[in-house]
Amino acid sequence: MTTNRIRHIGLCLAGALMMYPLLWMLSSSLKPGATVFTQPGLWPASWDLTNYPDGWTALEHPFSLYLANSFVIVILSIIGNLVSCSLAAYGFARLRFTGRRLFFALMLGTMMLPGHVLLVPQYVVFAKLGWLNTYYPLLVPNFLATNAFYIFLMVQFMRALPTELDDAARIDGCGPFRTFWKIIMPLSLPAFATTAIFTFISVWNEFFGPLLYLTDSELYTVPLALRQFMDSEGQSQWGQMFAMSFVSLAPVIGFFIAGQKYLVKGIATTGLK
Amino acid sequence: MSVARYRRQDKSGYIFLLPWFIGMLFTIIPFFASLYLAFTDYNLLNPPEWVGLDNVREMLADDRLMQSLKVTVIYTVVSVPLSLAAALGVAMLLQHGIRGLPVYRAVFYLPSLLGSSVAVVILWRYLFGVDGVINKGLALVGITGPAWTTDPSHALTTLIILHIWTFGSPMVIFLAGLRQIPAAYYEAASVDGAGPWRRFISVTLPLLSPIIFFNLVQALIASLQTFTQGFVMSGGTGGPADSTLFYNLYLYLRGFTQFDMGYASAMAWVLFVLIAMLTAVNFLAARYWVFYDD
Fold first, then answer.
1. Mean pLDDT of A237-251
2. Which of A5, A82, A117, B76 has its CA 20 to 30 A from that of B184?
3. Comparing A37-51, A79-93, B85-99, B136-150, which segment has the lowest mean pLDDT?
4. What is the C-alpha separation between B102 and B99, in angstroms, rounded?
5. How far apart are CA B79 and CA B74, in angstroms?
6. pLDDT, tens only, B140-173
7. Exposed (0-12), middle (13-18) or buried (19+): which is A150, by Cβ within 10 Å?
8. pLDDT class of B1 with cuts at 50, 70, 90
């Protein structure tokens, strides 16, 4: 009993330490900018709610534009990953065709490939296509199943479904496409949910791609916009900067709370099998 | 199974894989193209010019490159073991059906989803500022904290701490792995007189070793490719005094601000070869310490 209590006390202390930076950010976003560093303590001694509306309009464009840009990229990326990765996963998990093992090994190999090896030639191709300063370089790869991690996740899930389902569907006259659409896809919705949430979080946080390909500030995503706060840092802006930082984290935290079950399951599957 | 039916599945298999095949072209062709570019001088405007091993020679004499390698290796060697140890330690505390597990797990897992966001790196910069919360806390116990972010000997430390803060995702994998260890093993060990430490060494560690191995390989590969943290913390320069100049940040600066794209390709390939070798060594070493139950 006592060891259990010590364990809880230890975990609570460690948990408080983990949460402290985020709580400090929230608290700083509610304080007048000049007092962020002079007034210690998480509970603001004086409140300043204007950080949010002021921060919203502090940059070249209203923050809603950056949020909208990020959302467009995130939603299209989710659609792309779900469609292309689930098709590939079904092929790998349920169909028999020549070269399947080889292609599967190749797919696993690309999971370990450092992205920067492809960077320069891809940039050159995108430049030649006239795609610089557009969203295409950020979106098109997601429609081409280039995220091997998600294919792998879905393959693991689909392999665990009983093969009798496919046999029964075939006897009832379903081809592979109807079997995928009517049987496997509905049963794989948890894997779809995991993929969607992981895509949301990673694309929402993605910094390098937008930094490389977007130059026009009208096209900026939230991470690029936040960076501008640092370039123009001054006392009065601290509160605003933390306010918009918190706005940028809120969707991730929201998705995390809503989808924790799928995230935990998804991440556990990839490590165990 | 008849030949006709086999062929039919062949066709539909390839149709399902069609997007992936096109995507693979976008992977394989750039893969070899960058190998070619590594032996050229290329600035995007003029056609690539073959220079043989000049880029490699330049790399060997490039102090900033060596510095970036040093930064990346120190960061990896320090932060990967520490974050995996934290992940395993907390996962051990969370097992055995502890009350409030979902809440604890959420609290420890959430930071790992935010650790690569620009918002959190900005936050870190201010937490570790001269007047930041960390130094205020240190002052309470009588320590004068350094200028974490502007002192070259401390800037990387802040990013190592940030990395450790994100131990949640390996922790979740450890938790799932711990749950698969049959309770009977622990009971048998207890009957034989094994205390908690002995049970950890002789039951938990060997049975968890495949998962430790997986987490280690993943974490090493990811850590060697760190970019955003160094970029945002230093305002894109890798400073102060190149102390946060990660390898990939230097690659970006050479390739995309100075447009030395041949050199950047050579750098990318060197990192790729290093990562491949490291992973191969890991797999070889795994024979001696990773234990498969079945």
1. 92
2. A5
3. A37-51
4. 9
5. 8
6. 888 888 889 889 999 999 999 999 999 999 999 9
7. buried
8. very low
> In terms of Cα–Cα distance, which of A115, A204, A10, A19 is closest to B123?
A19
Tokens representing B140 are: 């309470």
Interchain CB contact of A108 with B (< 8 Å): no
Distance in Å from the first CA to the final CA of chain A: 36
Residue A40 CA: distances (Å) to CA of A22, A49, A230: 15, 18, 22
Gap between the terminal Cα atoms of chain B:
33
Q: Touching check for A143 and chain B: CB below 8 Å?
A: yes
Across chain A, mean pLDDT equals 90
The Cα B231–Cα B234 span in angstroms is 6
Say whether A145 sits in a helix, a strand or coil: coil
How does pLDDT run across A174-185, given as a tens digit for each residue? 989 999 999 999
**Is residue B49 classed as helix, strand or coil in its secondary structure?**
strand
> Domain spanning A55-272 has what CATH number?
1.10.3720.10
Phi/psi zone of residue B226: left (φ > 0), alpha (ψ -120 to 50 degrees), beta? beta
**Structure tokens given for A77:** 């990326």
Residue B179 C-beta-side C-alpha neighbours within 13 Å:
13
Tokens representing B83 are 């974050």
Q: Which of A25, A81, A97 to probe the B interface (max B CBs under 10 A)?
A: A97
Amino acid at residue number B217 = V
Record: contact A120-B248, CB cut-off 8 A: no
Which chain A residues contact residue B269 at CB under 8 A?
117
| Contact by Cβ (8 Å): B243, B156 | yes
In chain B, residues with a C-beta closer than 8 Å to the C-beta of A273 are none
Alpha-carbon gap, residue A201 to B114, rounded angstroms = 8
pLDDT of A2 > 80? The answer is no
Work out the mean pLDDT of chain B and round it to a whole number: 92
From residue B199, how far is each of B170, B217, B291 by CA, in Å? 22, 25, 16
Give the residue carrying structure tokens 């049959």.
Answer: B182
Q: Tokens 């990773």 identify what position? A: B290
- Judged by CB atoms closer than 8 Å, whether chains meet at B215 and A83 is answered as no
Burial class (CB in 10 A: 0-12, 13-18, 19+), B163: buried
CB contact under 8 A, A146 and B215: no
> Can you give the residue ranges of every domain in chain A?
1-49, 55-272
